[in-house]
Amino acid sequence: MLTEKRSKAALSIVSTTLLAAMVGCSSDGGAGQDGSSANPQAGNTSSNGKVELRIAWWGSQDRHDRTLKAIELYEQQNPNVKLTAEFIAWDGYWDKLATQAAGKNLPDIIQQDYKYVNEYVARDLLVDLNPYVQSNTIDLRDADHLHTDGGKINNKLYAVNLGTNSLAIAYDPAMFAQAGVPELKPGYTWDDLAAAARQLKSKLGSDAYGMPNFNSMDPFKHLLREKGLWLYNEQANGLGYDNDQILVDYFKYFDALLKDGVVPTPQVTQDIKGLEDELIVHKKSPMHFFNSNQVVALQKAANRPLKLTILPDLPGGTKGHFLKPSQFFSITKHSKHPEEAAKFINFFTNDLKANEILGAERGVPISSKVREHLGKSMGDAAKEMFGYIELAQQHAREIHPPDPEGSSKIEALFARIQEAVNYGELTPEQAAKQFREEGTKELQKK
């Protein structure tokens, strides 16, 4: 299923709870995963004279381990700074941030996503980082603007890209060979993908599926881009496509595979909580849809070689791929030490030893010096990721603008409708109609 699986509650609560933050609601910030208290005093200078910063991110266990080691290195280099980590899986991350925002108690540094930057900026929760870039506190002189522009809104930099990635399909070449099915080569179509999945299912037996059921929003956006369309209109008050048959056909494509047992039922996938649980890890599927930066963690969990390929082409269509910031670091307005936070982001971006530890797990680094350095010693999974970004770039065009404010509710709506289709509670026609009606109503509330 969709990478870093989205909790419907998390997606729906972001806008409403963050809005509460603007009118002064209060809340207990909760505790970090390391057991530390996330209290309103965090970020102050402690009694021993150390600057205390809180930092939050989501991700797999591999990301947690790598990030904690990089933090340890930073504290060794900067003994006056103490960083308190608050890490969690994607499910629950946005809930937690929303609660902290309502209590005016956000961490100093938060991992941010391209989908939500607009919402946080609109609610005046993020610091403009341009002054720190101009002073080289955050040194981006070695980063091409294509890697950094994704964090800009109205010419202000609110987020520093932690790595470039693109939508991808991971596959197990050994399982393809076992089934006698040729590997999917760039230029293959949606029909080719379905045919390959059917062949894989028939050859791999009853314990495996041809591919996951990834009829989620991101592949749908990819299909819209191939049709020269986008999910939102330019005014961000409605959908960007007029013909609901596009979504009907999209759901029908996967529904046919579901009914034929080629993709798993939701009952099979309901217990998947992270990359470690994915079907490909346990050889229950030879393919997995996700963002390319996750291949390092996925291959570690699978403990065998995996490859990456692009999403299918639409005959006669335009390029659907784009290069995307995998995630960002942003400094929140609740930080009492934004300059110290900026120094840590600079370390995370440019320090060679830190990036050896991080291993490009979040995506291809934006610093050319870091990329060159890692290229000398990185493992097979990281090499696959680096090579994939070069491949995806050949099949990509310009990135679309960040999703409009309130898009989290549209994501939650799509996820709810997607689930209803998968469970057979809605037909594709009913689903497409409901998405337009409810989505338009939500977008017009602004």
From TrEMBL:
Keywords: Signal. This is Sugar ABC transporter substrate-binding protein. It comes from Paenibacillus xerothermodurans. Transmembrane segments: none annotated. Pfam families: SBP_bac_8. Residues 1-20 form the signal peptide.
